[in-house]
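Structure in, sequence out. Go:
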């Protein structure tokens, strides 16, 4: 399952390549390890296999936090903690229909910004870019009721997200869809 999910972005990459338009803002280029890092763009890979719904989130941290450096003051510390908590309880973000009876089994979040050493947050240069990765697994008791998802919660909660590239694997095969705030529905 996990292999399938990881393989998906590569399988669909050629079809999506033209959608990766580069904006003209001044990203410096010391972050090639981040892969595609475009402010405003997030990615969600969603796979429904039987009762198991798995989701991978990739997003520049700035979309979610409004900044990509280690928190510098109390307000940024609070924002970080709130965002972390919000991403760990993503039910509202995914708009799961209650009839599907999905329960969150696992939520893993990774970001250089979430790492702390013994003295607080790791030093993180202001000039570098940071991503947030999330991995979620739900079990759904009535997956037949999971016809689709409405991801408007992501756009509401995080105004920094302008678009979400979704890759979907479900009972009817796989598809890619680009969502924006005015079009947030995906169907399995
Ligand atoms: Zn960035």
């Amino acid at each position: 399952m996990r292999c399938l999910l990881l393989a998906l972005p590569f399988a669909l990459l050629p079809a999506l390549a033209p959608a990766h338009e580069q904006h003209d803002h001044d990203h410096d280029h010391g972050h090639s390890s981040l892969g595609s890092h475009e402010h405003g763009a997030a990615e969600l890979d969603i796979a429904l296999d039987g009762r198991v719904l798995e989701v991978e989130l990739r997003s520049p941290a700035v979309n979610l936090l409004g900044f990509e450096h280690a928190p510098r003051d109390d307000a940024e510390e609070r924002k970080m903690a709130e965002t972390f908590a919000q991403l760990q309880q993503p039910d509202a973000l995914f708009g799961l229909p209650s009839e599907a009876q999905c329960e969150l089994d696992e939520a893993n979040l990774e970001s250089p910004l979430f790492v702390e050493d013994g003295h607080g947050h790791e030093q993180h240069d202001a000039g570098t870019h940071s991503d947030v990765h999330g991995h979620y697994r739900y079990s759904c008791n009535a997956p037949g009721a999971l016809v689709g998802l409405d991801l408007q919660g992501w756009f509401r909660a995080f105004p920094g997200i302008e678009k979400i590239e979704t890759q979907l694997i479900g009972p009817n095969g796989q598809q890619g869809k680009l969502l924006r705030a005015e079009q947030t529905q995906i169907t399995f």
